[in-house]
Amino acid sequence: MKEKINKINRLYATLSQVNQVIAIEQDKHKLFQEICNIVIEFGKFRFAWIGLVDEENKLVKPVAFSGEGAEYLQNLIISLAKDKTGRGPTGRSIREGKSIIFNDLTSNPDFAPWREQALEKGYRSSAAFPIRENNNVIGSLNIYAVETHFFDKEEIKLLEEVAKGISFALEKIKIEENRKQAQAAVRESQKRLNKILTNFPIGVSISTSEESVSYINRALWTIFGYDSGEDFLKVPASAHYYNPKDRDIFLEALKKGLVKDLEIRFKRKDGTMFWGSVCSTTLITRDGELEFINTFEDINERKHADQLLKALNQAAVSTGIAHTHQGIFNAVAEELKRLDISCILFPLDETQDRLITKFMSFESTALTMLEKLMGVTHRDFSIPIDSVDIFRKVVREKKAQYLEKIEQGMEQVFPKLSKKVLAQIIKSLRISKIILVPLVVEDRFIGIFSVQSDNLTQKDIMAITAFSHQLAGAWNKIKLIQDLQNTLEGTILTIAETVEARDPYTSGHQNRVADLAVSIATGMSLSKERVEGIRLAGIIHDLGKIKVPAEILSKPGKLSDLEFQIIQFHPQVGFDLLKNIEFTWPIAEIIHQHHERMDGSGYPQGLKGDEILLEARILAVADIVEAMSSHRPYRPALGIEKALTQIKNDKGTLLDPDAVDTCLKIFEQGYKLPDGKFTFNISAR
């Protein structure tokens, strides 16, 4: 169970690191090498390499690698054909355009050409994932593990996301290369300016000073939203900057000489801000005057794409450490909010026919307004999938959809509202455009993730879609952990009931001790995780009594010295039974120490002070209070007052003073021990 969780976390760490590289790396070869390094460092694989198609020789050429296996690549021959050197995972992945897994290299006949050398390197399983550029397979990511049958469905799914991330990064690098090539073309064409500037797609101006402009081209005034060059020049140059500080940045850079790819904010005619990239070259005219040739490029879309990618990457990191579905959604919503993008996550309901508006990132006032329109709280509102065309399309096709005008979908969600009211809502929330992506885990549809904003474009679909796979995986991870947790608690419950079935006089004792211990720990401000460990340990703290004869447990008279020694051995027995089970918490040690005392007079180890776990010290206080206040076969119940007086007297000598003070405080505040029934309120945690 613990290994499963570690494996999931290791894969998400690998994917997170890959996304960070994708967000910043602009060099294709450095990208390949860094991804190989990440797969080895964070994924803990034996060897990884990336190969690209050599069309001329019809072979796969390694371009980056990491791990143990440099020699393995030296004589490696992988063909694109279907011959014996092309039937391995790499060749097939490139030809077929899909993931190819060989989970047993020792016996797979198609791996024969490379088996001997691979086995010498310790490889026992291999996987290849296609890499695409412009929708064409150009190579593959190849990974080797030391165990057979290493690659399961979940591993394959996440490694496919790594390959998709590489493809997305190549597309981004290509766009950046195209942009730089365009700017280079401008700089190299200065000798032919008079022939080409008029219709050049990048804005150009020639001036001798900021206000003395001798030439601007059509692209420049169009970028700034003006109808003509004359209209543009009527406005003071300083007014074209979005903020005076942006102008200062440009002028300061100009003083230093050549300005290259300076990114600053400008203002369009309608007052809206846009990001521009500026290059400026200084020339000396025949008259000896300085002349500035400036180029302006609207990079708003690229800037938006970078910001969106960084936000989604940070959200992906945050989702990896979230412990609840609400925590995952809050992490995503917080990052998108910085870009003025709202989001909604629609889980699929139990009928599989409706979507629930459970997770919405709108401000409270906006949510209140929407809930009034819906007639119920957003958590209780659901939408039939087939009643909204865009929802039906996303669900049935399992493919992202983009709406330039969100009204098309909202009219079907709120059929009774007028177009005027809908328009007002859209304007006030700034959600004129929407992208919806399916959330799919192992081909199972679990819901829809949507983002809404005035700033979205169709080009954002790729980034949102790539992120949705991580979101779905993180969502499913929480469910897996909760399922494992539920299984663990069910096992503990069964153990506890078995113990108390042998001792009817103390029936419910463990559950009452656990409840009181949880209240004490909560009052001491322990973390939720530690409180949960105390709860589970409390429920089975007397597990060791399972080896104590029932006659001793139910004996009505005083125990003999030998019988008492047998009873005292139960913490050790409980520890021995649990010590080899991998819990998230130190449950075995807590049970082992719950009869230790602060002055060292306890048993079975004679620990004292801080040698005793805080959890065990809390459990000791709860155990004494419950035992004294309850009926025992050798005496009637002594009552809560005597129990509380006893722990007050033992405070600091036998019992932890903070735990005692907190216990006394919660009883003063009205705490009462529960009945003896075992319950698990899992949803409350």
Q: What's the CATH class label of the largest domain? A: Mainly Alpha
- Second-tier CATH architecture of the largest domain: Orthogonal Bundle
Strand proportion, as a percent range, falls in 15-25%
CATH superfamily of the largest domain: Hypothetical protein af1432
Contiguous uncertain segments of 5+ residues: 677-685
Number of domains: 4
Give the integer mean of the pLDDT values: 83
Number of helices: 26
Instruction: Give the terminus-to-terminus CA distance.
Output: 21 Å
The portion of residues assigned to helices is 40-55%
Record field, number of beta strands: 17
As laid out across the biggest beta sheet, the strand order is 2-1-5-4-3
Largest sheet: 5 strands, antiparallel
CATH-derived topology of the largest domain:
Hypothetical protein af1432
Backbone structural class: alpha+beta
- Assembly state of the chains shown: single chain
Rg, nearest Å: 34 Å
So what's the overall shape?
globular
